[in-house]
């Protein structure tokens, strides 16, 4: 697998994860909050964090998954219900290209002016890739 990233894309720093003893959406206590579990006569829930806003949420309030390439998440990650509703198709647009080499690459050479990538595999197969759209978008 050969992976390329658009390094010129404006990225956003990931949010800092917030600390909480309760789900910041439904107020259910997390499993270490024994006093609140006792007061509510309930079992605590596991804590998760929304990758878009950083809030501490329970599983019930963070069922959705989404790609967030501008935050560095090219694959689906957990997001809370509020954030999921605000994510647009533009927010999900990938800045990464995955090329399936289908062989173990042991050597590669990139000619940026021609937009060609040459790979040689352990199986002695040489492949020439057209990567002009990647190196000169």
Task: Write a structural description.
By secondary structure, this protein is α+β, with helices and mostly antiparallel strands. It has 4 helices and 9 strands, in the order E-H-E-E-E-E-H-H-E-E-E-E-H. It has helices at 34-40, 81-86, 89-92, 132-135; strands at 2-5, 48-49, 56-57, 64-68, 73-79, 96-99, 105-111, 116-121, 126-130. A 3-stranded antiparallel sheet has the order 7-8-9, with no helix packed on it. Strands 1-6 form a two-stranded antiparallel ribbon. A hairpin with a 4-residue loop joins strand 7 (105-111) and strand 8. The longest helix is centred in the N-terminal third of the chain and has 7 residues, at 34-40. The protein is elongated, with a radius of gyration of 22 Å. The two termini are 21 Å apart. The mean pLDDT is 89.
């Amino acid at each position: 697998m050969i992976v390329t990233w658009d390094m010129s894309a404006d990225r956003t720093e990931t949010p800092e994860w917030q600390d909480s003893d309760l789900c910041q959406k439904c107020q259910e206590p997390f499993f270490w909050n024994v006093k609140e579990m006792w007061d509510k006569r309930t079992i605590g829930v596991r804590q998760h964090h929304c990758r878009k806003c950083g809030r501490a949420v329970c599983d019930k309030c963070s069922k959705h998954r989404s790609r967030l390439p501008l935050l560095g998440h090219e694959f689906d990650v957990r997001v809370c219900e509020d954030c999921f509703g605000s994510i647009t198709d533009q927010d999900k647009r990938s800045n990464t290209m995955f090329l399936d080499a289908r062989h173990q690459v042991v050597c590669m050479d990139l000619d940026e002016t021609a937009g060609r990538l040459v790979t040689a595999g352990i199986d002695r197969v040489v492949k020439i890739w057209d990567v002009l759209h990647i190196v000169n978008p």
